[in-house]
TrEMBL record:
Regions annotated as coiled coil: none
SUPFAM superfamilies for the chain: P-loop containing nucleoside triphosphate hydrolases
Stretches assigned to the AAA domain: 4-172
Top-level taxonomic group: Bacteria
One Pfam family in the UniProt entry: AAA_31
Region forming the signal peptide: none
UniProt protein name: CobQ/CobB/MinD/ParA nucleotide binding domain protein
PANTHER family according to UniProt: P-LOOP CONTAINING NUCLEOSIDE TRIPHOSPHATE HYDROLASE, PARA FAMILY PROTEIN CT_582
InterPro entries hit by this protein: AAA_dom (IPR025669), DNA_Partitioning_ATPase (IPR050678), P-loop_NTPase (IPR027417)
Length: 247
């Protein structure tokens, strides 16, 4: 069975990456087989599935033990809401040091997530940190699709140019990335938010202009702007209390 590997990424924190990864995983699990991988030592995605579990729950089989080949995928996953979850733990802080000592660690996620061990999954969703360029790069190297959540703040648009260069570099290194999806999140209906949304709609044209003006963007697919996710108290509460959204 083939699968899509989807990374949720944005260098900025607080743009609903973990919320997006969690609810996307739960939603897709109603239609097919899903594995969710938490690549953020803050464990927000892990806690969406395993709220109020003791810290020891995350210590012995997690993303880093999988990356280091200390545990197999089968022995690492924990199932909740029909999703197989690879939880994170604070020891992910050591990932950058591992990569600095041995660059092959950067490609471990791709090796594992594209191995026969994952052939039963239709979707693999990876959550990434706001900080931690090595974790994000490792995830993108493994991915077919990247979803970039953005919130209605002008600074969230300013980071996209640099991040596009990071994505282009990942493709140079062998990533199969073929789709870039930009997801407006926590959106409202004020005039300012409408103006920012109009700016988002221009990103494909801006990227095309960048391709013609300077190096570093030439391999990127045309970004697709998704429909906005509204700011919702229901979504916030269900995320906070680790509950899936309704149909």
């Amino acid at each position: 069975m083939g699968h899509n590997i989807i990374t949720i990424a944005n260098p900025k924190g607080g743009v609903t990456k973990s919320t997006t990864a969690g609810h996307l995983s739960m939603s897709l699990a109603q239609k097919g087989t899903v594995c969710a991988v938490d690549f953020d030592r803050q464990k927000d995605l892990s806690k969406m599935f395993f709220l109020n579990y003791p810290e020891s729950f995350y210590d012995h089989a997690n993303t880093l033990t999988l990356i280091k080949y200390e545990t197999s995928l089968e022995n690492t996953i924990k199932n909740k809401y029909g999703v197989d979850v690879v939880v994170a733990s604070p020891n992910l802080r050591n990932f950058s040091m591992l990569v600095a000592k041995d660059i092959t660690y950067l490609d471990r996620a791709r090796e594992i997530l594209r191995s026969p061990a994952t052939s039963n999954y239709e979707y693999i969703i990876i959550d990434t940190p706001g900080t931690g360029i090595f974790e994000t790069t490792s995830a993108i190297l493994a991915s077919d699709i990247v979803i970039i959540p953005v919130t209605p703040a002008r600074w969230s648009l300013d980071t996209l140019k640099d991040f596009f260069k990071d994505l282009n570099d990942a493709i140079k290194l062998g990533s199969n990335l073929s789709k870039i999806l930009i997801l407006p999140s926590l959106w409202g209906s004020s005039a300012e938010k409408e103006e920012i949304y109009d700016q988002l709609q221009q990103i494909p044209n801006v990227l095309e202009a960048l391709k013609n003006a300077e190096p570093g963007f030439e391999l990127l697919p045309k970004p697709i702007i998704l429909n906005p996710i509204p700011s919702s108290e229901s979504i916030r509460k269900r995320s906070e209390f680790a509950e899936p959204l309704g149909e």
